[in-house]
């Protein structure tokens, strides 16, 4: 395979019925556009997601499959996928099929039209296809996050993003960091851009998060990211 220009990282946990259609949609969106690879990271699924991915790998030369020995969470799955990625730019998609791979070319076009300082393009689900309770919880969470972090990002929870691999790997790592990528990238001195994207209803499987669970974890994470931003120090470096 040629050196890829783009790596598509997909964290997967108990998504046996979603991974094959999702991989097919990624191929349809990207084949013929650029050299790419797909890195699916199975987070120690309890169903047969891993055998399904293994069977797909035999048919799809662009597909690579990583497997966690123990369940480690979505942020760890994303980070391990990015570490294994061979391209300088990475797109991420949730494994549940709610993100639309057809939006990846839109993010690539927005990147190409943006200033060089833009290192992360975040999907913005203008029309959410989740339950009413989840949409209300997300609106409140976004308002609180925006007030504390000032990241000027309307939707940090959207799984579809495009970013420079080196910039991502330079960010501080912690569990649930994937929900704060715009603020962390801005903290590092770069610019981010929100791009409206499609959002779809889940057609198979069940959500892995509850509103209460996200709220309890989110408060602690939000305070931690706020502390990181407050303690941030940056300076230009010149070699003499």
From TrEMBL:
Residues 7-168 form the Glycosyltransferase 2-like domain. GO terms for molecular function: undecaprenyl-phosphate 4-deoxy-4-formamido-L-arabinose transferase activity. The keyword Transferase applies. SUPFAM superfamilies: Nucleotide-diphospho-sugar transferases (SSF53448). The keyword Repressor does not apply. InterPro entries: Glyco_trans_2-like (IPR001173), Glycosyltransferase_2 (IPR050256), Nucleotide-diphossugar_trans (IPR029044). One of its GO terms (biological process) is lipopolysaccharide biosynthetic process. It comes from the Bacteria. GO terms for cellular component: plasma membrane. Gene3D superfamilies: Spore Coat Polysaccharide Biosynthesis Protein SpsA, Chain A. Keywords: Cell membrane, Glycosyltransferase, Lipopolysaccharide biosynthesis, Membrane, Transferase, Transmembrane, Transmembrane helix. This is Dolichol-phosphate mannosyltransferase. It comes from Pseudoxanthomonas broegbernensis.
